[in-house]
Amino acid sequence: MTLIQLKDFVFFLDLVIFSFVFYFLRKKGQKATKKRRLLFAGVTLFTGIVLFVTPLYTSYVDKEEWLVNSSISDMREYYHLGFWGYHGADLLTFVKQQINEDTDVNVTVKNNQPMNKNLEIANAPNIILVQLESFQDSLIDKEINDQVLTPNLNGLKEESLYFPSFYHQTHEGRTSDAEFITNTSLYPLKSGSVYTRYPTNEFAALPELLQNAGYETAAMHAFEKGFWNRDRSYENLGYDHFFSDQDYPNGEKIGMALNDKRFFTESIKHMEELDEPFFAFMVALTSHTPYEIPKDQAQLDLTGYDNSLLKSYYQTAHYVDQAVGLMIKELKQKNMWDDSLVIFYGDHDSGLTKPGGEMANKVNAESPVDYFELDRQVPLFIKRPNSEQGEVINESGGQIDIAPTILDILGTEPPYMMGDSLLNEKPNLTGFRDGSFRYQDLYYKPDLTKDIDEGTCYSVSTEKEVPIEECEKHVEEISDQLQLSDRIIEKNALEE
Prior knowledge:
- By secondary structure, the protein is α/β, with parallel strands linked by helices.
- It has helices at 13-24, 34-61, 66-69, 74-99, 104-112, 151-156, 175-184, 194-197, 206-212, 230-237, 260-272, 308-333, 358-362, 368-376, 402-409, 469-490, and strands at 127-132, 143-144, 147-148, 161-162, 166-167, 216-220, 241-243, 253-254, 257-258, 278-283, 341-346, 380-383, 391-392, 397-398, 429-431, 437-439, 442-446, 455-459, 465-466.
- The strands form 5 sheets. The chain has an 8-stranded mixed sheet with strand order 7-6-10-1-11-12-4-13, with helices on both faces. Strands 15-16-17-18-19 form a 5-stranded antiparallel sheet, with helices on one face. A two-stranded antiparallel sheet has the order 2-3.
- β6, α10 and β7 (241-243) form a beta-alpha-beta unit.
């Protein structure tokens, strides 16, 4: 209900209008002859065909074949083709996928990168990967009325790698996209979720690679097993176990499921039952919209804030930070912290970042760069085994780089992943589903109503527009990456 706004009901206004028209004209019509009925039907059919075909035809005349054959954004298709043209393109794409057995992508991938999924890992540490729900990087180091919002995560910087220029790359699948990107180092689909559309395809995913290297692997999420088709997807990705709501005790729910404090502590008990080395992937849930929290757990004084949803978001984020602190404390008490590789990251934004909103106004967001970073930045903390000192790494990156970074720390390389390790010296090109990207000091924002190279290039440090030539060479590269990722997923190209 929190997602529904009054203006949404405008979508149904036509039904109201037509209902009134039909009601008042119900007795004023005359019975039409068969000839008039056929004429009316023919004109209607012809008009529909024109509306359907014209946008597709004009796109080809304008040599815009990418809109149908290799589009990277469904919104770009819509802006260029219109309502009917978009559905026509969607239909043609579906038909083409059914009749065209394109195997080129398989050959290309396998010739460039042999699919040897049997990795050798020396001195393999336990790995704990934690996904925090709707957790933005703007929460880190934030103070409200002299209250520290995330004291435990702030303190984690002292013994971990912290990446302040790290971005979520999710699209329509949101949380499921974040899981998929992190586990497979591929991009999300331009429409829908991989978990529901291609749950059994081969992805050479991180848990499968670790499983082959001798790890016992487990996914943990205290919600319904079949939600987002996780039960099928997790098994296919290489998880030996999936601990869902059925495997957690009844306890105080906050929002959708068991509160994160109890979820984390109970998950540690599940970890203790696994054979070492183990890989545990945990999906937290307390800070899920609409950010419901009991009054006795709302500890922050948010005087000066008006938006009730934003206030609830900060209260739940503070609670989740306490849960993280509790988890770290317990891992240390059980001697499961020091020699383990532990990662915390945010899955996506809060949905409260829009320009003109209270969150944006409170942080003085003004430029396109400000809004991009507020909306896309999520925290990433990597605590390496036996780490004694933390470090802030300012190099930019995205969720697609998490799995390669983990394997880099383990001293091995993946057989095929589209991301890069965040710890090498190579600058990362971080792409997003609409064709925008972040590279070194550059941020490119495409204009979805024009060709893919007709956007705006910004300097992140100055927040000013810079010549488009500085971004141009990376526009096609991101487009190619998104198209390749789509083909790998849709054609099951990594299948042996």
